[in-house]
Amino acid sequence: MTTVHPCYPYRRLHQGATAVEFAIVAVLFFVLLFGGMEFGRVMYVWNSAQEITRHAARLAAVTDFSDGAALLAVKQQALFGSDSLPGAVVINSENLQLRYLNAAGDLASPMPLSPTDNVSACQDALRVSECIVFVEASLCEGLACTPLQYQPMLGLFSVMNIDVPLSSFRLPVESLGFVPS
């Protein structure tokens, strides 16, 4: 039989209280820790989305638009050498859209056949709508260009229905891969 010290009669009643207090504090600590990590990841995705569209537009302005392999390489280079953004699979080469626009800001229609044909279209007054003047890179989903849905890293924050901001960057074209002969 254990004896209770006369000065501490309630000692048995308080056994395990420290473990409960630690568990409560640990839950709060880990929620704050993972919440901070998730917030950092949100900021990484938002900032990377802007950088990806800027880099893709810059590369597309000097790349042959009629070469599908070259355009795929542009998208992969803009995504830091991968098919998707490291740490955010929702941002991938399928959601990175390149559009070639005429002077009015509309899609060049019909598209010139090659960079050489684009030079001819820009010099012909009857083919102004075909002349590619701007290239625009956008990070969005589908032809309607809807915002991408942010996917949290942890299931704790799955209630966060945050859209990745529509990222778009427009530049005047440069060579478009044209090589003078």
Strand content: 15-25%
Query: How many DSSP H or I helices?
Result: 3
Shape: rod-shaped
Largest sheet: 3 strands, antiparallel
Portion of residues in helices?
A: 25-40%
Span of the ends, CA to CA: 103 Å
What is the count of β-strands? 7
Assembly state here?
A: single chain
Mean of residue pLDDT values: 87
Outline of the structure:
The protein has one domain. It is built from three helices and seven strands, in the order H-H-E-E-E-H-E-E-E-E. The chain has helices spanning 17-60, 68-78, 115-123, and strands spanning 84-85, 88-92, 96-101, 134-139, 148-149, 163-164, 167-172.
Structure, explained:
By secondary structure, the chain is of the alpha+beta class. It has one domain (13-172). Helix content is 35%, strand content 16%. It contains 3 helices and 7 strands, in the order ααβββαββββ. Strand 1 and strand 2 (88-92) form a beta hairpin. Helix 1 packs antiparallel against helix 2 (68-78). The model has no long low-confidence stretch (mean pLDDT 87). Residues 16-58 form the TadE-like domain. It comes from Pseudomethylobacillus aquaticus. This is Pilus assembly protein.
